[in-house]
Amino acid sequence: MESKRERIPPGQTVTDGWPVLHEGPVPAFDPATWTFRVFGEVERPITLTYDEFRALPVRSVRCDIHCVTHWSKLDNVFEGVPFAEIARLAGVKPTARHVIIHAENGYTTNVPLEDCMRDDVLFAHRHNGQDLTPEHGWPLRIVIPHLYFWKSAKWVRGVEFSPVDKPGFWEQRGYHNYGDPWKNGGQRFWFD
Question: For position 180, which CATH number holds?
């Protein structure tokens, strides 16, 4: 069994809280108009209503999360729809190599498809037995635990499957394109 210290990447400090960090305002949520769109390199483009999305299979994942701003929060339990379920429903084409997560306020982030297909990647709506708060991404955020948490975008509204990489909001502003907290002391910025 790993010790607590072995679970903390270089340069990180454990927090018991969950700091709130994001760009732009917290968006309003209306379940009557909210949709989730799946598009790009897929056999079956999909647009789901809130009720349709919430009817999809749900799983729980226990994981640690690591923020580029040097905090780590251990033993989180997220509940949500597995990313692989969305990929299955849409029928991802063999030409897809990258995923672009689209969120409110025009925010995007990019992740290689193979990273999103891991068993612990979810479109989450709950954290530690409670619905996510609006400040933490309600009604939906993606959770990609093995990457820095900016890749786990809040307020997700869709996923694009792409044959090419498309750097997102923070990646275009100097953050590392991949964001592995364990590699080279942490891939925080483009020069790491």
Answer: 3.90.420.10
